[in-house]
Amino acid sequence: MKNILYGLALLAFAGCSSYSEIARWDGATSINDGEVPIASFLTQNFSYQLLGFIPLCSGLPWTEGTSDICDEFNVSAFSDYATVDNNMISLRHALARVGSNRVANLRTCESDDSEWSFYLVNRHEVRTSCVILEKK
Question: Which pTM was predicted?
Answer without folding.
Answer: 0.83
